[in-house]
Design brief:
The complex is a heterodimer.
Chain A (H helix, E strand, L loop, with lengths): L6 E5 L8 E8 L2 H9 L7 E6 L4 E5 L2 E6 L5 E7 L1
Antiparallel strand pairs in A: 1-6, 2-3, 2-6, 3-4, 4-5
Chain B lengths: L1 H5 L2 E7 L5 H9 L4 E4 L6 E9 L2 E7 L11 H10 L11 E7 L3 H12 L5 E6 L1 H6 L3 E2 L1 H8 L3 E3 L8 H13 L11 H16 L7 H9 L4 H9 L3 H15 L6 H15 L3 E2 L8 H9 L2 H44 L4 H18 L2 H17 L1 H14 L8 H6 L4 H6 L7 H10 L9 H11 L4 E2 L4 E2 H26 L9 E4 L8 H35 L5 H16 L1 H22 L6 H23 L1 H20 L1 H8 L1 H4 L6 H9 L6 H9 L11 H9 L11 H13 L4 H11 L3 H28 L2
Parallel strand pairs in B: 1-4, 1-5, 5-6, 6-8
Antiparallel strand pairs in B: 2-3, 3-4, 7-9, 10-11
Helix pairs in contact in B: 4-12, 8-9, 14-15, 14-16, 15-23, 16-23, 20-22, 21-22, 21-32, 21-33, 22-33, 23-34, 24-27, 25-26, 27-28, 28-30, 30-31, 33-35, 34-35
Classes of the chains: A mainly beta, B alpha/beta.
Chain lengths: ~80, ~775
């Protein structure tokens, strides 16, 4: 993909405040992944980090979601540089 | 139409959390909803009624959810209701799906699952005004045409367009169901049919298609768990095989569902939803910059919590006193009408005191829920949970447990009722189980009495810190400190399992709607009185009976009548005694402020001796009354000692001796199992002071100081006082709390567990305190 040349895939917790990204993959136990998908954190969704940390606050479309991910769950996002 | 009107329509309401679902429900049905529990689960069953053009509708409120994939038995209830499999609800005629108009794409996820059920559906686009203010444009008519269902824009909190919603419900329910949208690829549909066939072959009966889809999609979900329990193990292998085959065909589970449904939502919304190109910084975001920041946010949080508890403690006190006064007055009124006897005692000391014991909690519950409802409705509660999450994860809970636990410092009952916001069952149970350890306001009188009687008034640091205050602080914090290892142990043992990721929506801030807030307060207050109240009342009657029977109360009643007559005949003397007492106090007060060698002090001292002489004259006149009261109190003590409760106290004496207690303390503790504050009145009766007594009564404090074992040693040493306080700090002496746990968990085993673990903890704590205290103090 041409896109990947100009972008970088990083874990969600590396996003700085105000940075926007696109969800690339949610990895972990199937039921948790499913739940995160249902809440809007599915591959392709555009997100913006409002307050990094644990828990963090994200903007997903018009929603503001607060997240604390357990060790077994990883959210990878694609940041365009 | 007449055939439709004969039977009320059953309509389910479903939607994402924070979409104003409860607001719409209340706006449509009013506050008179019927509240209960579904059998076997903790989900609240809420049914309201409304009417449109003569058609009766019963509206079933389902819990707010992001999807219809059930992970727990609680979540399975919604699916069962919608599929008409919940026996106590019956078949569903239509579904009202409520969506946040300003967030349509994600909200369509659950809408697509509802459409999958093939039931007549109405889509309500709530918060239409918010969507407009954000510059979103939605073509509702076109959306309705594409979905094949009526789509109604609505502003529930402003009571707008409600008639449209009502009309749409009635017409949808009487019309044909909409076509089921084709969301999933062919391979998935084939796999579902395959699974349905296999289940039939196994004799599991016909499984509805939506349920078969859930079975395939939800790995480890409730539907799968149910079937795995009843079917042979091969079933698991077949299910896994089907999932693997789907994966090879390019449909990954669970990602496939989200992918398919969001793709469908996107397609539906293309050309229907127009979003502004410029992203707007909303007012909510600006407020959040302060309210969710590490330092500023915590400061605001502390101020808010302080104001709430300050308001509750200043407002609840007078209201509770007022409630008590009303019941005291009612008791007096009955006393003046009925002759003395078991009936009067049952009505006054059993029934009226019992109802009073229930209603006295009502002001606290209503006030706390008023504030919680305001904070929740305006959106602050989610921020508070966010801020407290860091702290609460240390004991294995999430931020959502903070407010219920904090509330429990006022009273565990509203605290436990407030755990409804915790959707994770395990977190909720742990929170419920440790909430009664928080030091509630009913423990305070017990602490105050024992501290005033036993702890010397020593001060340190130049009078700034007093030993009494330190002991009070320690007693108040003990429960919360013990709760930390208890929570940890619960999570390690009986409530084990992986902590799910914490995901919570932060809804946009808005002004709380008074109607909504009041409806919530009314709901909670009524639930408490109706469900817990009857049981609290019954326990009160039981303890009354145990302390009244068996025994011949004739002498006590004669003495009581005699006292009443004497009081009436010597009214003037009693009044002058009160006046003398108060002037004695005033003079003493003045004297304390003066230099004892001064002329003025000398004059005051003379005045004091003058009052004392007059006082002794009055006392002599009142001697018959005093004698009668003493005799009555002695008789009451004798009766209590020989009652069922007293005998039980004697019987358990060997068990309380290691705690340093005598049988009288044992009886007091036994009697206070329904409500811990009862110990004050019981100790009053048992030390022959009468039951009408408060914790600041000097006579009771004196009686405690002078109480002695038969060999003359004092009963209440400091270790004994501390041991009683530790017992009260940790014990589950509150029938109301246990009944609320029963109501909220919908099971008798959790209140039983709470009672046992707290009582064992209290006993061991008291034992340790007494033994270590005695050893340490020599």
């Amino acid at each position: 993909m041409l896109m990947t040349l100009a972008s970088q895939i990083v874990p969600l917790d590396l996003l700085a405040a105000g940075e926007t990204a696109r969800v690339f993959e949610v990895d972990g136990r199937a039921e948790f992944v499913h739940r995160l998908h249902e809440m809007g954190l599915q591959p392709g969704a555009e997100i913006r980090m409002l307050r990094p940390g644990s828990p963090c606050i994200l903007a997903v479309n018009e929603h503001r979601l607060s997240f604390r991910l357990e060790d077994s769950t990883t959210v990878l996002v694609e940041v365009s540089r | 139409m007449s055939s439709v009107a004969a039977r009320p329509l059953t309509v389910a309401v479903i939607g994402n959390p924070n979409t104003g679902k409860s607001t719409l429900f209340t706006a449509l049905t009013g506050v008179h909803a019927q509240i209960g529990n579904y059998p076997g689960v903790t989900v609240e069953k809420k049914i309201g009624r409304l009417q449109h053009n003569g058609v009766q509708i019963q509206l079933v409120d389902l819990p707010g959810t992001y999807s219809l994939s059930p992970r727990s038995l609680d979540e399975l209830v919604s699916v069962n209701v919608l599929l008409g499999r919940q026996a106590d609800i019956g078949a569903i005629d239509a579904v009202v799906c409520i969506a946040d108009a300003s967030n349509l794409e994600r909200n369509l996820y659950v809408v697509s699952q509802v459409l999958d059920l093939g039931l007549p559906t109405v889509l309500v686009l709530n918060m239409w005004d918010v969507a407009e203010s954000r510059g979103l444009k939605i073509d509702a008519a076109e959306l309705g045409r594409r979905l094949g269902i009526p789509v109604i824009p609505c502003e529930a909190h402003r009571q707008r367009h409600l008639a449209d919603v009502r009309a749409a419900i009635v017409s949808a329910a009487s019309g044909p169901p909409p076509a089921i949208p084709r969301i999933f690829p062919e391979v998935f549909t084939a796999a579902v049919q395959d699974l349905q066939q296999r289940l039939q072959d196994w004799g599991a009966g016909a499984i509805p298609r939506p349920l078969a889809e859930r079975l395939l999609l939800d790995v480890g979900g409730q539907v799968e768990t149910g079937y795995r329990q009843t079917l042979p193990t091969e079933f698991g292998t077949v299910l896994d095989g089907l999932r693997l085959r789907l994966r090879d065909q390019g449909f990954r589970i669970p990602a496939g569902e989200a992918k398919a449904r969001y793709a469908w939502a996107k397609e539906i919304l293309t050309g229907v939803l127009t979003t502004p190109t410029q992203r707007m910084v909303t007012a909510s975001d600006r407020i959040d910059r302060v309210l969710t920041s590490r330092v500023g946010g915590l400061i605001v949080f502390c101020v808010v919590m302080f104001l709430v508890f300050q308001a509750i403690s200043t407002l609840a006190g007078p209201l509770m006193d007022g409630t008590e006064a009303v019941f005291g007055f009612a008791g007096d009124a009955v006393r003046s009408v009925l002759p003395a006897g078991p009936l009067r005692s049952l009505i006054v000391d059993g029934a009226i005191a019992g109802v009073g014991g229930v209603l006295v909690f009502l002001p606290q519950i209503c006030l706390l829920f008023l504030f919680i409802a305001i904070l929740e409705d305006c959106g602050y509660m989610a921020r508070a949970a966010f801020l407290m999450d860091r702290l609460m994860t240390r004991i294995g809970l999430s931020g959502k447990s903070f407010v219920p636990l904090m509330s429990s410092f006022a009273c565990a009952i509203p605290g436990i009722m407030a755990t409804r916001t915790i959707e994770n069952r395990r977190d909720r149970l742990v929170t419920i189980l440790i909430a009664p350890l928080m030091s509630c306001s009913a423990r305070l009188p017990v602490y105050l009495l024992l501290i005033a009687a036993l702890i010397p008034p020593i001060t340190f640091a130049g009078g700034w810190i007093s030993l009494q205050a330190l002991v009070l602080f320690a007693a108040m914090s003990l429960g919360a400190l013990i709760a930390i290892p208890v929570a940890w142990l619960l999570r390690m043992t009986i409530l084990k399992g992986e902590t799910p990721p914490f995901v919570m929506e932060l809804p946009a801030y808005k002004w709380p709607s008074p109607r909504m807030v009041l409806a919530r307060v009314y709901d909670r207050g009524r639930a408490f009185v109706a469900r817990a109240g009857t049981l609290i009342f019954a326990t009160n009657i039981l303890v009354w009976a145990a302390s009244y029977f068996p025994g011949d109360h004739t002498l006590e009643e004669q003495l009581t009548t005699q006292i009443a007559q004497l009081e009436e005949s010597s009214e003037a003397t009693l009044k002058s005694r009160d006046e003398l007492q108060s002037s004695h106090e005033t003079v003493e007060h003045h004297l304390a402020a003066l230099d004892s060698a001064s002329m003025e002090a000398e004059a005051l001292r003379e005045q004091l001796s003058e009052i004392a002489i007059q006082m002794s004259l009055v006392e002599r006149k009142l001697a018959p009354l005093t004698e009668a009261v003493d005799a009555r109190n002695a008789e009451a003590e004798r009766l209590l000692e020989h009652s069922a409760l007293g005998r039980l106290g004697r019987a358990i004496e060997p068990a309380v001796i290691p705690l340093g207690w005598d049988w009288k303390i044992g009886v007091g503790v036994l009697a206070s199992f329904p409500a811990r504050e009862v110990i004050i009145a019981t100790l009053g009766t048992i030390y022959s002071l009468g039951g009408d007594i408060g914790e600041d009564d000097p006579g009771l404090q004196q009686a405690i100081r002078t109480a002695a074992w038969p060999d003359g040693r004092p009963v209440f040493t400091i270790p004994v006082g501390l041991s009683v306080m530790v017992f009260f700090a940790l014990c589950a002496q509150c029938a109301s709390t246990l009944m609320i746990i029963r109501r909220e968990t919908n099971s008798w085993s959790w209140p039983a567990f709470t009672f046992v673990y707290m009582t064992v903890l209290a006993y061991l704590g008291a034992l340790l305190t007494y033994q270590v205290g005695t050893w340490w103090m020599g």
